[in-house]
Amino acid sequence: MAGQMTYGKKQWEKYDVQMRKIIPVMHNAMKELVTIIDADTTAFSDYMAALRLPKNTPEEVSMKQTAMEAGLKKAIDVPMSLARNVNKVWETAKELASLVNIGAKSDFQVGIKCLQTGFMGAYWNVTINMEGIKDEVYRKRMLEEVEQYRRIAEIECQEIFKILQQRQ
Questions:
Q1: Which pLDDT tens digit goes with each residue over 91-149?
Q2: Quick count: other Cβ atoms within 10 Å of Cβ 90?
Q3: What CATH topology corresponds to 10-166?
Q4: N or C: which end of the chain has fewer CB within 10 A?
C-alpha cells in the first residue's frame, strides 16, 4: 500500500523507475505469504491424525511414531517456508523505506511490524513443533536456519525503522 501511495504521484515521480521494480516484488511476496498462511492452518492435521493411530503392536507403535514425525515435519516445513519468504523481502523493504512517500510512513511501519510478527509466528511454530522431532540432523539444521532468519529479521526491522526515522 505504501508503495502505491508513492508510485505515480507527481511529488515522488523521480522514484517511479525504482517503484516499478519494488512494488511487484512486495506484491508477489504478499500473495505467497497469504498462501503459506492458509496452508499453515491445515499443516498440523497430519500430526493430529497420526496421534489417533493404534499402538497395540510393536509394528503399529513404529508406524505411529513414523507418521507422527512426518506430521511434525510437515507442520514445521510450512512455517519454515514462510520464514524463508519473509527473509527474501527485507532488502526490498529497506529500499522501499528510503523511497516511500513519507506521508505513508506510519502505514509502512505497521506493514513492517506485521511482516516481523508473521515471521515470529512462523519462528515459534517451528521451535515448538521441533520439540517432538527425533531426527537430530533435521532438527539441528532447521533450528539453525530459523534462528539465523530470526536474527536477520530483528536487524532488518531495526534498519528499516532507522531509515524511516532519518527521513522527514
A1: 999 999 998 888 889 999 999 999 999 999 999 999 999 999 999 999 999 999 999 99
A2: 21
A3: Four Helix Bundle (Hemerythrin (Met), subunit A) (1.20.120)
A4: C
C-alpha cell, 45? 492435521
Q: What sign results for the dihedral spanned by CA atoms 131, 87, 84, 104?
A: positive
Decide if 80 contacts 114 (C-beta within 8 A): no
State the DSSP string of 12-50: GGGGHHHHHHHHHHHHHHHHHHHHHHHHHHHHTHHHHHH
**Cβ partners under 8 Å of residue 96, min gap 6:** 2, 3, 22, 26, 108
**Domain boundaries, given as residue ranges, for the chain:** 10-166
Quote the pLDDT of residue 15.
62
Cα–Cα separations (whole angstroms), residue 132 to 65, 83, 85, 127, 151: 10, 20, 25, 10, 24
For the whole model, what pTM was predicted?
0.79
